[in-house]
Amino acid sequence: MPAHQEHITAPFYKKPAFLAIAVLVLIAGFFLLRDSGGSMSTPEGTIKALVNALDDADIKTIASLYAPEEQPDAAELEEAEEFLNGMMEDVKFDNLEIIDVSVDGDKAHVEYRVDVSFMGETNTDKDVSDLIRINGKWYIDDSFAF
């Protein structure tokens, strides 16, 4: 290359590797946003949201996953928060596995397994939940109780 010519490189945002990474980030972001925003759009999504809220000890989110007529009033929610305050911090929920989902119109039945850890011990719990679809969202069709 002659001495008077400068070597011009493409800006980093025009390089193929950067473009590939940017596209992957956008695709991953789309799926993450779609899953978090529409977490109640499927019975499985509602159960995933439940397990995540349990792991975060987020009582308000847990309550919001129940069918509207089963959700606690403010006093019941406060009582549940006081009762569980600190207790849930030592409990971890991990490795959710959806075993079976059966849907019949606006009703669903979900069988799932989740690892529950407390004080160094981990147990795998198998559970079932009945759900109901209301206005396109799936809710747990059971009484909210702690």
UniProtKB/TrEMBL annotation:
It comes from Paenibacillus sambharensis. Keywords: Membrane, Transmembrane, Transmembrane helix. Residues 78-139 form the YchJ-like middle NTF2-like domain. InterPro entries: NTF2-like_dom_sf, YchJ-like_M. The chain crosses the membrane at residues 16-33. This is YchJ-like middle NTF2-like domain-containing protein. It comes from the Bacteria.
